[in-house]
Specification:
This protein is an all-alpha fold and about 190 residues long. The protein is built from nine helices and no strands. The longest helix has 27 residues.
């Protein structure tokens, strides 16, 4: 990857994080990257394509970091869900997409190409959680008769939402890891 493309991506990532998707213009990205309009458009068709590129890049990086975490901890199924909860609590803070991605998803983009790319990125995350569920089912940690895709979706939603709760409450900051741990407790044991 060229240094100029890296500079564009870095500048765009920072601007999307601080200003949001709709408030970031291509001209601001060009200025922050110290690039030219021609160079930016050589690498990215438009702002939506640039944002999706960043989403995909960060999803790939997140999955690599997870593999490193598992290797480092030598996780087995008895603790993999709790390790995952802690990992998400640590890493989701680095993923600024809580508000920016929600804003992007609700924007008026009409491109079938962008829609398909978003579906591919979402599938990366869902497949990741489904594979975690399947591993736990194979080791009888989770009922093997349950649909792993449905459970994977619930687990993904539960962990991402419980982690994103900190964006809505000042009280959560000191306890964020506990929220994800509690989410796993509820996922495994329910709330009877």
């Amino acid at each position: 990857m060229s240094e100029q493309k890296k500079s564009i991506i870095s500048a765009a990532r920072k601007l999307f994080h601080t200003k949001g998707f709709s408030e970031t213009s291509m001209n601001q990205i060009i200025e922050a990257a110290e690039s030219s309009k021609g160079n930016l458009y050589h690498h990215f068709k438009n702002k939506e394509h640039l944002f999706v590129y960043i989403l995909e890049d960060d999803a790939t990086q997140w999955l690599k970091e997870w593999e490193q975490e598992v290797e480092k901890t030598k996780a087995d199924s008895d603790d993999i869900l709790y390790i995952l909860a802690e990992f998400i609590a640590k890493s989701r803070g680095n993923l600024y997409y809580h508000k920016t991605t929600a804003e992007f998803y609700s924007s008026a983009f009409k491109s079938d190409e962008i829609t398909e790319k978003i579906k591919e990125i979402d599938k990366l995350y869902l497949d990741f959680f489904v594979n975690i569920i399947k591993k736990c089912q194979a080791e009888k940690r989770i009922n093997p008769k349950e649909d792993p895709k449905m459970l994977g979706y619930f687990l993904m939603s539960l962990l991402f939402i419980s982690n994103d709760y900190k964006h809505y409450s000042d009280e959560v900051e000191a306890k964020e890891n506990n929220y994800n741990k509690k989410a796993i407790d509820i996922f495994l044991k329910g709330v009877k």
